Amino acid sequence: MKDSNFLKENNARRLWHPMTHPADSLANPPDIIVEAEGVEIIDIDGHRTVDAVGGLWNVNLGYSCQPVKDAITAQLGRLPYYSIFRGTTNDNVIELAEMLAEFFAPDGLSRAFYTSGGSDGVEVALRLARQYHKIRGEAGRVKFLSLKKGYHGTHTLGASVNGNANFRTQYEPLMPGCFHIPAPYTYRNPFNETDPARLAQFCLAAIEDEIKFQDASTIAAFIMEPVLGAGGVIPPHESFMPGVRALCSKYGILLIADEVITAFGRTGSKTGSRHWGVQPDLLVSAKAITNGYFPFGAVMISDAVAEVFEKDTTGKGAIGSGYTYSGHPVGAAAAVACVQEIERQQIHLNAGARGTQLFAGLQALMARHQIIGDVRGGHGLMCALELVADRASKAPVDKKIIGKVHRATYEAGAMVRVSGNNIILSPPLVVTEADVAKILSALEAGFSSL
Ligand code: PMP
């Protein structure tokens, strides 16, 4: 490895970081992470912290998951790459498809289409939704509905259904035909409604209103995260996703669950859709499917949708999407080992228990620190603190202050993530009670530093 000075000097000069202003990397040089062990990361100066971000919501089994590492190494030796475009396949993708069909069976999903990540998966799911309607002779169904605050990756279709201006404005014009509904976000919403159940009903009414306004026969799909993640961890009321499902079914619209974060246990249930008792038509998974060790994703497809494609005799059912790395044998080997570990350890159960501990600790933190305007969580290991200048106006706190909390928390032993005026927590699902206590005490030190 190059020495520390070389790395620190050249990072900002030569490298642009995702979701970061290039000038910010110069002003606030990032920490250089060089090693990880268990649920901890170690930077180039030897500082060790609990990773309360879990990589990027993806390292659910932690950094020392030997079966996944071994599977990757063995596969690199045996078959490092071959494509699964028409005419060839490999043993891992078949074994994985069988495992995924079993894992997602309670969600009513039985076919897999592989991608190299979440943005790719969103793109595929939106395309499949349009194609499904075309095969069935409803070619006019081309529009998409989604939630404000939703995050669906950075490809142009995904950015078009994204509900956060930061990921859209600089890239407009995006795809026409995408419409956004207010999210069930109790802390801030256009209805000034703080009761989650009533808010869910208002948002559902807004969806139905938009469906009628657009004309249902022009809408292909509704895409949503079961718990809004990057938008600031916004869990809806339990009636919301079932309500969306009912509206989609009523108007012939496909429901796409974007489970890039929530699939494989993060909410305390094996999938986010199952958490709310909903069966989507399509489900996008990525991130935790390989524990973050290899870029990979799978779009899962319901029987009913799959049969429309499989029984098509007109040629319209031919899939016109695919990536060089769709079904990468190393990624698929990693995913096979990873899903086996997820099942063996039943990590969703620990996510539920430790999530309860984390959420309670964050609520206690809010009682002590006025700067915390809202605490969200309560559904597994995804939580957020929303920081405000004052609780009455709810004005977002100055960026510099969040930066200070972040730094002091890091120095006290936990890496947390800043997104807008939120601090987001999504630790590995294998954290112990002591790890969660350490995250909470580091945050306490972070807020006390102000
Ligand atoms: N959808 C959701 C819900 C996500 O959280 C993300 C990534 N955070 C994506 C899509 C995009 O996934 P990727 O970054 O792997 O392309």
From TrEMBL:
InterPro entries: Aminotrans_3, Aminotrans_3_PPA_site, PyrdxlP-dep_Trfase, PyrdxlP-dep_Trfase_major, PyrdxlP-dep_Trfase_small. Its cofactor is pyridoxal 5'-phosphate. Pfam families: Aminotran_3. Keywords: Aminotransferase, Pyridoxal phosphate, Transferase. It comes from the Bacteria. One of its GO terms (molecular function) is pyridoxal phosphate binding. CDD domains: OAT_like. Belongs to the class-III pyridoxal-phosphate-dependent aminotransferase family. This is Adenosylmethionine-8-amino-7-oxononanoate aminotransferase.
